[in-house]
């Protein structure tokens, strides 16, 4: 737990540059050069491939409807500061949806505390809800997670998660809306 608190302190430093932040994020967890066997049955698009999206986005309209951080994260592949996201500590039963198109992406049942500073999930509600795209930015080799409906950037997935999948979907709160389950009594 001490290492988690130390990482939290380092990563919450507001003086980190935009280059330092991704490098620090990649220090503790990365995907090996040949990608994990956890992804063996999953299509991973190369950076050159362009997945087809059902919903076409109007960037000017999105700038009006999304907050600045939501736009930066979802449309410019940004990363919110660790331990600042509104969904980091959400523990209520419910569904996490794409903030842009409202598609269900994650269930709170698969959310876990990873110590990374971002909401983490070990699985998606359905594998067709996300596209996995090779990401070689910042000198790292990672797998980007994008909404399969609208193409919005959600975060990245790593192969250091808990059972049963062994995956850790490290997701920006700014890319998600949370819809609590309605208790029908």
From TrEMBL:
<dbReference type="GO" id="GO:0005737">
    <property type="term" value="C:cytoplasm"/>
</dbReference>
<comment type="function">
    <text>Methionine-sulfoxide reductase that specifically reduces methionine (R)-sulfoxide back to methionine. While in many cases methionine oxidation is the result of random oxidation following oxidative stress, methionine oxidation is also a post-translational modification that takes place on specific residues.</text>
</comment>
<feature type="domain" description="MsrB">
    <location>
        <begin position="59"/>
        <end position="181"/>
    </location>
</feature>
<keyword id="KW-0862">Zinc</keyword>
<dbReference type="InterPro" id="IPR028427">
    <property type="entry name" value="Met_Sox_Rdtase_MsrB"/>
</dbReference>
<dbReference type="InterPro" id="IPR011057">
    <property type="entry name" value="Mss4-like_sf"/>
</dbReference>
<keyword id="KW-0560">Oxidoreductase</keyword>
<dbReference type="GO" id="GO:0006979">
    <property type="term" value="P:response to oxidative stress"/>
</dbReference>
<dbReference type="GO" id="GO:0030091">
    <property type="term" value="P:protein repair"/>
</dbReference>
<dbReference type="InterPro" id="IPR002579">
    <property type="entry name" value="Met_Sox_Rdtase_MsrB_dom"/>
</dbReference>
<dbReference type="GO" id="GO:0046872">
    <property type="term" value="F:metal ion binding"/>
</dbReference>
<keyword id="KW-0479">Metal-binding</keyword>
<protein>
    <recommendedName>
        <fullName>Peptide-methionine (R)-S-oxide reductase</fullName>
        <ecNumber>1.8.4.12</ecNumber>
    </recommendedName>
</protein>
<dbReference type="Pfam" id="PF01641">
    <property type="entry name" value="SelR"/>
</dbReference>
<comment type="similarity">
    <text>Belongs to the MsrB Met sulfoxide reductase family.</text>
</comment>
<dbReference type="GO" id="GO:0033743">
    <property type="term" value="F:peptide-methionine (R)-S-oxide reductase activity"/>
</dbReference>
């Amino acid at each position: 737990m001490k290492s988690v608190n130390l990482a939290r302190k380092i990563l919450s430093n507001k003086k980190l540059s935009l280059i330092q932040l991704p490098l620090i994020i990649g220090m503790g967890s990365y995907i090996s050069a040949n990608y994990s066997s956890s992804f063996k049955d999953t299509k991973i698009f190369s950076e050159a491939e362009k997945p087809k999206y059902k919903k076409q986005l109007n960037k000017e309209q999105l700038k009006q409807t999304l907050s600045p951080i939501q736009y930066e994260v979802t449309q410019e592949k940004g990363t919110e500061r660790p331990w600042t996201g509104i969904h980091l500590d959400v523990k209520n039963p419910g569904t996490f949806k794409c903030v842009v198109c409202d598609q269900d992406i994650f269930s709170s049942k698969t959310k876990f505390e990873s110590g990374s500073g971002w909401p983490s999930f070990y699985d998606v509600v359905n594998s067709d809800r996300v596209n996995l795209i090779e990401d070689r930015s910042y000198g790292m080799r990672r797998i980007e997670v994008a909404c399969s409906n609208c193409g919005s950037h959600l975060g990245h997935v790593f192969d250091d998660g808990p059972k049963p999948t062994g995956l850790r979907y490290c997701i920006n709160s700014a890319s998600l809306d949370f819809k609590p389950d309605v208790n029908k009594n």
